[in-house]
Amino acid sequence: MVRRTPSRSWVRRSPRCGSSVDPRTPSVIEVWAFGGIPEITPGTDLVGAIVDAGATVLQSGDILVVTSKIVSKAEGRILHADDREDAITAETVRVVATRTSPDGHVTRIVQSRLGIVAAAAGVDASNTPDGTVLLLPEDPDASARALAHGLRTRLGIEVGVIISDTLGRAWRDGQTDSAIGAAGVHVFEDLRGQTDAEGRPLTVTMPCVADELASAAELVKGKAARRPIAVVRGRADLVGSLDLPGARSIVRPLERDMFRLGADEAWAEGFAAGAASVHERDAEAFGSGP
């Protein structure tokens, strides 16, 4: 059940009828966005801006989800729009697909230097001044670590930080917010080796809680509400050392990437079929004998 008020969104989890309550999973989490964040420009002290806007409501165990755009702005990752295509090329390490629409617009799905597969390498013109585009933060995990360290030092509380960006999903329409940077928070909840409600062992279950938290935060931040930061409360068990693996660890290694493997297999199968057809046609035309 989801209940919203003007300032807060409550997300309640209830067990299915007839199942036992999992003591490891909280039945209630709280997600809200707070206002008061000023317009961010290159050089803005983000820690100071967050402290000024929300210091009185933050407490140990909270997880802040910060939109990547304000991090990019603070870090000066702003370019003239005329440089967009060159910027996409510079941020790209592998082109996954290219499509040209009837009006001539070209869309490139690429893997960026951060390992993220996204349209246009994350180079974005939304919520930026006219004539400009934003690049993703240079190192989102390092940015998250700096924010978490600064907040812990100035407020004397232990919080986690996730930097989020909007991404598409393979095989599914629409977009969701995902974690591209993280610090002081476990990005996975590893349930392998535990048991389900029926006592069966869990062998592969490892939810990416960083992505789940980023998506939950988007429900209250919105796209045009000028609320770039949300707080998740109720998962203090996920908050930990600043040395925990960051969001880069979420990127699946190529040798285990079955989405890419499927594309490679399809290409190889198509190539083999095409080569076989050419061979058969040539054999019919010229004969198979000496």
From TrEMBL:
<dbReference type="GO" id="GO:0052618">
    <property type="term" value="F:coenzyme F420-0:L-glutamate ligase activity"/>
</dbReference>
<dbReference type="GO" id="GO:0005525">
    <property type="term" value="F:GTP binding"/>
</dbReference>
<keyword id="KW-0479">Metal-binding</keyword>
<keyword id="KW-0436">Ligase</keyword>
<keyword id="KW-0342">GTP-binding</keyword>
<protein>
    <submittedName>
        <fullName>Coenzyme F420-0:L-glutamate ligase</fullName>
        <ecNumber>6.3.2.31</ecNumber>
    </submittedName>
</protein>
<feature type="domain" description="Coenzyme F420:L-glutamate ligase-like">
    <location>
        <begin position="37"/>
        <end position="234"/>
    </location>
</feature>
<dbReference type="InterPro" id="IPR008225">
    <property type="entry name" value="F420-0_g-glutamyl_ligase"/>
</dbReference>
<feature type="compositionally biased region" description="Basic residues">
    <location>
        <begin position="1"/>
        <end position="15"/>
    </location>
</feature>
<keyword id="KW-0460">Magnesium</keyword>
<keyword id="KW-0630">Potassium</keyword>
<keyword id="KW-0547">Nucleotide-binding</keyword>
<dbReference type="GO" id="GO:0046872">
    <property type="term" value="F:metal ion binding"/>
</dbReference>
<dbReference type="InterPro" id="IPR002847">
    <property type="entry name" value="F420-0_gamma-glut_ligase-dom"/>
</dbReference>
<dbReference type="Pfam" id="PF01996">
    <property type="entry name" value="F420_ligase"/>
</dbReference>
<feature type="region of interest" description="Disordered">
    <location>
        <begin position="1"/>
        <end position="23"/>
    </location>
</feature>
<keyword id="KW-0464">Manganese</keyword>
